[in-house]
Amino acid sequence: MEFNAIYVIVVREFKKFIRERSRLFSAIARPLLWLFIVGGGMSRIVPAGEGVSYIQFIFPGILGLTILFSSIFSSISIIWDKEFGFMKEILVAPVSRFSVVVGKATSGMIISTIQAVIVLGLFPFIGLQLSFVQFFSAVLICALLGFTIASFGILLASYYESYESFSVIMNFIVMPMFFLSGAMYPVKLLPSVLKIAAKANPLTYGIDALRNVILPMETGRMSSDFSIYSDVLIIIAIAVVFVFVGGKAFERKQ
Amino acid sequence: MKIITVKNLVKTFGHIRAVDDISFDVEEGSIFGFLGPNGAGKTTTINILCTLLAPTSGHASLNGHDCNKESAEVRKSIGIVFQDSSLDKDLTARENLLFHAYLYNVDKSERKKRIGDALSFVDLEDRADDLVRKFSGGMKRRLEVARGLIHRPKVLFLDEPTLGLDPQSRANLWEFITELPRKHAVTIFMTTHYMEEAEACDNIAVIDKGKIIALGSPTDLKKIIGGDIIYIKTDDNKKAMSDIKKVIEADVSEKDGEIYLSSLKGDLCIPVIIREIGERVISVRMQRPTLNDVFLKLTGKEIRDETATPEDNIKEAVRSYRRRH
Ligand SMILES: Nc1ncnc2c1ncn2[C@@H]1O[C@H](COP(=O)(O)OP(=O)(O)OP(=O)(O)O)[C@@H](O)[C@H]1O
Ligand SMILES: [Mg+2]
């Protein structure tokens, strides 16, 4: 592993993120809209269960949404890099494709975790009480999920050449991933076909892990679907596979 | 010593034979030029040499390493300025260079110094901390050349380095490029559409439709074309012609009221001729052989003018759109 290369890929991404204020703004505004408008509105018709209101129920899902968008956005920048030529500078350097993928995924992880922490900080406003351990574990899970989703985005980006594909990815991959992740409704209540799709979705396990940590409940309508251990193991396993496959996808020459 | 050897290299894209069985060597420390029209296969060849493309068949090796199988070794020995800019326009000049230095694992103690030297070498010190998107085309090109040299490569590839520059910046950049082998002990492999640029190369390969149609030094190539053509008008062409033949060994003939002769070193011939028939000369003009002439001679067709493809225009439009928003 080339640590200098990984380091500089992360630093570049971070600098660009800081310089692009509008990106940070929309990254924070999106989850707020979902949380307070959708969550706030739906709370009126979805009754609270086991002392958990709907807005509290979707809070882990909104964290997942934050990570999903910012991680994907960060790794999709690879398509921009290809389009505007910078990718060649990286590909012609004596750096393994594996390090490039790890560098890009780490960038996505850091940027999306920062945003998730900002959103997570809103917990008192929706009537939640989190201990320090809960908060800290949630941040760790966010980071892990951020890395996994970013590596998934890199794999996607390695198959697309131009920015036209960006809206395709957003509409046909990212949005369905969000709706089929248990963010808005428990996976166990989904019809069986959708349940299969949700179980194939990495985001499902991230959101479920966050729900395990933020809303610990053994049973009930609003409780998590899987155990925290299986959630975390599955996220890590998926990340390893994506990084490996993504590295291979970059390695191939025409 | 041969730093690059290419043998029977072929690259096909579907039914297009972009590179069609070419072979050549490049001597270490020399400037090698690839001369050809749009779509000749210049960039494709560079992409194979710099490990971005795998050849369909044939061999290419650089600094003793196979370009396809030993990518990592080859990548360490090369620097490259791509045809299309590969700078990050949202970073400053210095940040672009710093990125490069980390990517190539330049020693920590060396990094600052090399970047400073590179910036002063291309005269961009005062703009070092400006975003690259604010740079002119010529500044970007120079920055890219500087970046390509940061890690001290053995071979520097330049794919149409002067493309899109005005004549003055072209001349400046060109002067700078020709000094590189001496100043940085680097071999230059470059592509161009321009005969004047090719003239400064030690060796040239003329390539068309994926095939090398001529290979040699500029003097060798000019011999194919017949060198410079000098046109002279005098008050008595018949007498002047026999006088010129006394001082210069060349075929001299008359056409449309003008004497014309071809010579490999036209610029040196003119003074000799003037000294001999001075007062009688009404006008003198000289035509340098152009790439067009080489082409006309070798392929029987004109070289297409260098124009941007529709795709390039779209890309440029999108770029300027993104710049404005
Ligand atoms: N990735 C690709 N897929 C399909 N065809 C390609 C690809 N790259 C190049 N070609 C084709 O190969 C041929 C040679 O292209 P190349 O870019 O090497 O030309 P060039 O000599 O660099 O031209 P120019 O002076 O315009 O840059 C062209 O016909 C081009 O359309
Ligand atoms: Mg080209």
Question: Which tags fit this structure?
Answer:
heterodimer; A: 254 residues; mainly alpha; 74% helix; 0% strand; globular; B: 325 residues; alpha/beta; Rossmann fold; Alpha-Beta Plaits; 2 domains; 12 helices; binds adenosine-5'-triphosphate; binds magnesium ion
Description:
The complex is a heterodimer of chains A (254) and B (325). Chain A is mostly helical. Chain A has one domain (2-253). Chain A has helices spanning 3-19, 21-42, 54-83, 86-91, 97-120, 132-159, 165-179, 192-199, 202-214, 228-251. The longest helix of chain A is centred in the N-terminal third of the chain and has 30 residues, at 54-83. The radius of gyration of chain A is 18 Å and the shape is globular. Chain B has 325 residues and is α/β, with parallel strands linked by helices. Chain B folds into 2 domains: 2-221 and 303-324, 3-Layer(aba) Sandwich (Rossmann fold), CATH 3.40.50.300; 226-288, Alpha-Beta Plaits (2-Layer Sandwich). Helices cover 40% and strands 27% of the residues of chain B. In chain B, the strands form 3 sheets. Chain B has a 6-stranded mixed beta sheet, sandwiched between helices. Chain B has a 4-stranded antiparallel beta sheet with strand order 2-1-4-5, with helices on one face. Chain B has a 4-stranded antiparallel beta sheet with strand order 12-13-11-14, covered by helices on one side. In chain B, helix 6 links the parallel strand 7 (155-159) and strand 8. In chain B, helix 4 (108-121) runs antiparallel to helix 5. Chain B is globular and about 75 Å long. The chains are: A mainly alpha (254), B alpha/beta (325). The structure holds adenosine-5'-triphosphate and magnesium ion. Residues 42-43, 83, 159 of chain B line the site of magnesium ion (MG). Magnesium ion is lined by residues 42-43, 83, 159 of chain B.
